[in-house]
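Narrative summary of target 7.
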Amino acid sequence: MRALTVVPGVADSARVEDVPDPPASDGAVLVRTLALGVCGTDRDIVSGHYGWAPPGAQRLVLGHESLGKVEKAPAGCGVKAGDIVVGIVRRPDPVPCGACAVGEWDMCRNGRYTERGIKERNGFGSEFFRIEPNFLIKVDPELGSAGVLLEPMSVVAKAWDHTERIGHRSRSWQPKTLLVTGAVQWAFSPR
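Modeled conformation, tokenized:
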């Protein structure tokens, strides 16, 4: 199976290479990758500034912004063959901090989380990936390849939620202007 890999910490080490099929230990659901988003995090990893390979491995399979089609799934797991899905990137600390314990893994306070395609877990940048059913989001097939934007949009939604929570602490908070910066997005198909 082909995958987009990198040696974290080594600039310009990205390449497409043959890798073993995803291990069953990655999850019971087998997904065929349809598209992969590439963002600034990936650029930093490819530049050697960021990223960690899985324990015992030298290379990291890139890709944390995914779009895929379920090939095989256990009965009753919430997804079935043919479903279009996006994988959740972050996994909570196995000994949860306060944030991880209440399902807010993106706010982990001790840094012992892992992330697909970024930190200590292979990403979705391969022809197939395996994943746990509870770390999948079903996507409306009518979205087409734009479904790959679900992960970056979840970051925007979380930021907006936090902005409102903080703002509502003040009775006088009444925003009238919004400034959006950054957010350049590319996508490619692994075929």
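The chain has three helices and twelve strands.
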